[in-house]
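Exercise 7. Given the encoded structure of a 179-residue chain, write a plausible sequence.
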């Protein structure tokens, strides 16, 4: 397995609409393994293919990406995921994203969603998700449309968050220069 390069805001690849996958083969499974490894290394609970520069409809996730007890991990691979039903009830949750490092903001999402997808073996599956899993699914499926969580917050909050993000990038760059 390999850790892939992570693309960060404002990279153009994060704004592309992703293409459907037509074949689940060994090459794709190899890529899924690399995506999962990258997600765990970067301490995320979800990752979409455009975040590693690939504009295909693929996501990996784990609502409990535990480092201490690997047996608690619950990785999921979803190919061509599609929300086929969502609840009217909404919930607020403070979200982050590996492509906008060190930032968080409260986003409104459907409390429950039903998602249809192809699994690791190319078999069609459907799940009814709630809680954190429902939120991760909506966040990651957004990525496949080129949508980021900051698109769901007010302009004022977005401006503040992006200012903080730029400051973070600047500080990170200086740390590298000093190293
Ligand atoms: Ni994200």
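Solution.
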């Amino acid at each position: 397995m390999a850790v892939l390069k992570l693309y960060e805001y404002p990279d153009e690849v994060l704004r592309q609409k992703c293409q459907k996958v037509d074949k689940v083969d060994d090459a794709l499974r190899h890529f899924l393994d690399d995506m999962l490894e990258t997600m765990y290394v970067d301490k995320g609970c979800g990752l979409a293919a455009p975040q590693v520069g690939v504009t295909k409809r693929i996501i990996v996730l784990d609502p409990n990406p535990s480092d201490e007890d690997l047996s608690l991990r619950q990785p999921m691979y979803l190919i061509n995921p599609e929300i086929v039903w969502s609840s009217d009830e909404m919930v607020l949750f403070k979200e982050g994203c590996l492509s906008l490092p060190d930032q968080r903001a409260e986003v409104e999402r459907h409390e429950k969603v039903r998602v249809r997808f192809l699994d690791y073996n190319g078999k069609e599956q459907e799940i009814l998700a709630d809680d954190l899993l429902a939120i991760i699914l909506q966040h990651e499926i957004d990525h496949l449309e080129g949508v980021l969580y900051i698109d769901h917050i007010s302009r004022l909050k977005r401006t503040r968050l992006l200012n903080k993000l730029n400051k973070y990038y600047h500080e990170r760059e200086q740390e590298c220069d000093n190293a």
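Remark. The mean pLDDT is 96. Students should compare their own answers with the one above.
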